[in-house]
Each structure stands twice: as structure tokens, then as C-alpha cells.
Design brief:
49% of the residues lie in helices and 8% in strands. By secondary structure, it is mainly alpha-helical. It folds into two domains: 8-209, no CATH class; 214-355, no CATH class. It has a two-stranded antiparallel ribbon. The chain is globular and about 60 Å long. The protein binds zinc ion.
Length: 363
């Protein structure tokens, strides 16, 4: 079957429908936000830009739910008295949040460590999957009493949903926009549900979706080693206090994991800001992750930190492709920006097989 990307008119209609869903959909729990968020994330991670439909396993959606809710379920420092777990449902706490709160209590709060037991992780995802399949999946595409079926075929109760033709394309093309819309709506929803308990003005957005700066410290020694103590961007020697930076910026895709993190000077990091890095930086990053893969992954494993090389490259490939399609600019150094050229594709091309085992010990 030959697919083609949606027309400009179809893309605008898609965005109108997302707005309509968020404005008119009835939300008693935050699950619907989580569902759209999860579908957008999975479109980036698993989809392509051909316009083709994309089948997604409900278990994958459930796993993404757990990841999204995990940080939101940490006790919120409400000021003054006790810390609270934020309500995500009008009335009784949302079932997924209760399951995750119990899992956090049993595991000291680290999702990565919790995942290391396949049994515990599988059990939690199965609970979440039950909720996903009975609650938001079959109710999301209803606004008021009207069906608004534009994201996925909603015909059965199987274990797969299929994003309709053109939807994966649109979710990838407008990922940042859609994510901002969902997160802003989700923050307002949680703010309203918890107004009494929160009292004054709090940075709920930062708590629910912000980057976890402090936890990145743990990555520093591992990155320092695989970069030989040098800044990924300018190549100069780093001080011990060097900053941990998201190579694909957090604002473009929220990926806190070793392969997407780099060590850089404060000044280089601040200058790069939320830009994508120019092709030569991309080449350095790919080289570091591929050539020092064994060392990087051993370091992450020893420290109990997450890392996923293929996912990091998939996210980078998506992000550079979208930036190229938008004629976007990339950061070179200092205040210098330049248009992204097609050379980025080469940087991310599959590695020639003779390099695969370059770091393997001799026989
Ligand atoms: Zn530097």
C-alpha cells in the first residue's frame, strides 16, 4: 500500500481537532491527557513520516502511562504541613496513581530501579493497561455526546489501536505544539483539582513536566569518562563542575537517559540553549555513543541509571528531520546559528559493520 503525507488542509484539521478535544472533551481524570501524550510520544519513537497508519500495542501505551505518571506521583511539597500526592481524578484518586504510589513506596522512588525487576514492572504495567483499555481509550474521542474520531480507529476492544493514516505524520510534525497544549491543559486540570490543598501559587508545571536537573548530577562522572574530560561542543578540557546537557533539548523531547546527555561547559551549554546542535556536534555525539558504547553502558548500568542508544538516535533522527522540514537553524558556537543542511542524515546513518566491534577486546 502506498501512503502519502496528509495535505496542508488535513494537517490544519488535525490541529483543530486536537484543540477541540482539549477544549470540549469531558475530563474527570487526567487519563485522557496522558493518552494523547503517550500516542504523540509513541508516534515519535515508533512511527515514520510516510503518512501510514501505525498500530500500537495497548501495553506500550500503558508503559508510557506509568512513565508519565511516575514523576507526578512523587509527594508534592505543598508548603507548610505534609507533602501530598496530587489528585488526578475528581473524587477518589485515579487508580493508576494509587498503583504507582504503592510502587514508589516499595522502591525508593527510582523508576529505573523499579523497572529492573521484570516481574514488578510487568505487574504495574498490566494494572495500567487494564485501566487504559477500559477507561480513556474508548472514551477519548468523544466530545460532549459527539464522536470525534480522528486519532485512531476505535472499533473493537482488542489489544491494539491503530493510528489513522496521516495521524502519525501530524503527531511527529507538530509534536512540540501538541505536547505543549496537552501539558498546559493537564497542569490546569491538576491545579483545579488540587486548588484547596495547594493554597498559593506553585510551579505545578515544573513539578509535573519540568526537567529533573538535580538527578542529572549522577551522570556526570560517567559522561566525563566517555568524553575524556572534554566538552562535547568545543572540545576543550572541562572543569569537574561541568554541566550535564540534554543533546536533543528537553523542550523538544523529554528524554532523561544517558545516551541523550552530554557534558559541556556552562557557557557552551547556555549558548546552545534549546537549539539543536549543528551537524559537527551531532557527529561528535553519535561517535561518542557508538565508539564508547560499551563503556557508557557499563557506567550507566553500574550506577543504576537509564540509557537507550537506539531510542536516543531515533529521537535525534526525528528531531533533525523536523527541523530540516521547517528550514530551522542549528547552533554552532557562541551566538552563531546556521541553517541545518542535509548533512545531518549522514551523521546518523547506520554504522558500517567494520566499526561495530572496534572497541571489542582482541581474541
Ligand atoms: Zn565547551
Amino acid at each position: 500500500m502506498h501512503w502519502s503525507p496528509p495535505t496542508p488542509e488535513e494537517q490544519v484539521r488535525f490541529l483543530r481537532n486536537v484543540q477541540r478535544l482539549l477544549a470540549e472533551g469531558l475530563f474527570t481524570a487526567s487519563y485522557k491527557f496522558a493518552l494523547v501524550h503517550a500516542l504523540a510520544d509513541l508516534a515519535v519513537l515508533k512511527g515514520d513520516d510516510s503518512g501510514a497508519p501505525l498500530p500500537i500495542d495497548t501495553r506500550e501505551i500503558a508503559a508510557r502511562f506509568v512513565e508519565l505518571y511516575w514523576r507526578q506521583t512523587r509527594p508534592f511539597p505543598a508548603g507548610g504541613a505534609a507533602e501530598v500526592v496530587l489528585l488526578q481524578n475528581a473524587g477518589r484518586q485515579a487508580a493508576i496513581v494509587s498503583h504507582i504510589a504503592a510502587a514508589q513506596a516499595a522502591s525508593g522512588g527510582s523508576l529505573f530501579r523499579f523497572r529492573q525487576s521484570a516481574e514488578r514492572w510487568g505487574g504495574l504495567v498490566a494494572e495500567a493497561e487494564r485501566v487504559v483499555r477500559t477507561m480513556p481509550l474508548w472514551k477519548l474521542q468523544t466530545v460532549g455526546r459527539e464522536p470525534l474520531v480522528f486519532l485512531y480507529a476505535n472499533t473493537g476492544r482488542g489489544r491494539t489501536v491503530t493510528l489513522l493514516p496521516g495521524v502519525t505524520y501530524c503527531l511527529r510534525a507538530f509534536y512540540e505544539l501538541v505536547r505543549d497544549l496537552i501539558e498546559a491543559a493537564w497542569v490546569r486540570f491538576v491545579q483545579r483539582l488540587n486548588a484547596e490543598r495547594l493554597g498559593g501559587i506553585v510551579d505545578l508545571g515544573g513539578f509535573l513536566f519540568g526537567e529533573g536537573r538535580t538527578s542529572l548530577e549522577e551522570y556526570r562522572p560517567i559522561l566525563f569518562a566517555v568524553q575524556d574530560g572534554r566538552c562535547l561542543y568545543c572540545g576543550d578540557q572541562l572543569p569537574p563542575s561541568a554541566q550535564v546537557d540534554h543533546f536533543v533539548p528537553w523542550t523538544r523531547y523529554p528524554a532523561d537517559q544517558g545516551h541523550n546527555l552530554v557534558l559541556a561547559h556552562d557557557a557552551c551549554n547556555a549558548a546552545k540553549s534549546d537549539f539543536l546542535a549543528a551537524e559537527r556536534h551531532l557527529a561528535s555525539w553519535v561517535r561518542r555513543n557508538r565508539m564508547r558504547r560499551a563503556e557508557l553502558e557499563a557506567g550507566l548500568a553500574a550506577a543504576g541509571l537509564p540509557g537507550d542508544g537506539p531510542a536516543a538516535e531515533q529521537i535525534a533522527r526525528w528531531s533533525y528531520r523536523q527541523t530540516a522540514a521547517a528550514n530551522g537553524q542549528v547552533w554552532v558556537s557562541g551566538k552563531e546559528l546556521k541553517p541545518l543542511t542535509a548533512n545531518w542524515e549522514e551523521c546518523l546513518a547506520a554504522m558500517p559493520p567494520e566499526h561495530e566491534h572496534q572497541n571489542a577486546p582482541p581474541d
